Structure formats: structure tokens, C-alpha cells
Amino acid sequence: MPSRIYYQDFLTVKNININNKTNTLHICNNTYITQIKYYVEQNNQSKSPPKIYIDSLNIKQKAKIFRIFTNIENYGLSTIQPHIKKVVGTPLWEIRILGQDNIRIIYAIHLKNIVLVLHAFIKKTQKTPSKEIEIALKKLKQILDT
Predict the structure, then answer these.
(1) Of 46, 52, 105, 122, which one has the greatest count of Cβ atoms within 10 A?
(2) In b/e form, how buried is each residue of 59-69, taking b as 16+ CB within 10 angstroms?
(3) What confidence tens digit (pLDDT) does each residue in 55-93 have?
(4) Which of 36, 47, 40 is CA-nearest to residue 110?
(5) Taking the model in full, what pTM does it have?
(6) Cα separation of 114 and 43, whole Å?
(7) What's the rounded Cα separation, in Å, for the pair 95 and 80?
(8) Phi (first) and psi of residue 62, to 5 degrees
């Protein structure tokens, strides 16, 4: 059964459903629903590397990520333009969490209203390492092949 959380935003109360079995986060308001789904390993459906990584971050880093995810779910991807970038030559996109750590979250659009989080890491060089892109592409291929 999904856990249910309510939180007070500055002006509105939003209903958040977190389903730990499917690693799905739904933020519902009256106008728009987008799902953010996390990649889960095929051999262990309870293990989601990007979710585990995000959960391991400090509270300030998680707050930045959660704020961007909330904006995506409420208003769509176009509203967070400064934070997203296309990974050239692939079907992947990256969410850029700027600041001290330069966290990157690589995702793909699975269906119209589903953002599929594939991989997350701290970017240490100016260019996104090809190893990180290959990891995300491998995960996407596993999902599309099933």
C-alpha cells in the first residue's frame, strides 16, 4: 500500500503519494499530474540505484532535487529550462542541480507524462563523463527490452 504524505507549500496543500513497491512519486493537484519513476534493477525490484543515491544526499541537496521534481510534476518540463539539458546524441536528458556539488540526474521521457530517472551522480569535470551516460543508456535499454 502506498504511503501518503501531506505537506504545506507556501500557498497550497498538495497531496503526495509515494509507492515504495514501484518506486513511484505522484504529486497531485487539480490541473496536472506527471509521474516520476525511478529505474529499478531487474534482479532485485526493491533496489533502485538512483533513488538510493538521492536518499543518501544531505537535506539541502535533497530539497533542491525535490523542488525541481515538484515543478516538473506540477507544471511540466518546460518550466525548469535552466535546470535541464539534452545529452547530445542520445534520448537522454540531464537535470542539473547547481551549487557546491553539481549533482546530475539523467532521465528519459518514457511516455507523455512519465519522467524515468535512470542515474544520478556528482559531476566532477566540465564535460559529463561518457561512463555515466553509458550507465544510463544501459538502464534505458533494459527497460525498453522488457
Answers:
(1) 105
(2) eebeebbeebb
(3) 999 999 999 999 988 888 887 777 777 888 889 899 999
(4) 36
(5) 0.73
(6) 23
(7) 9
(8) -65, -35
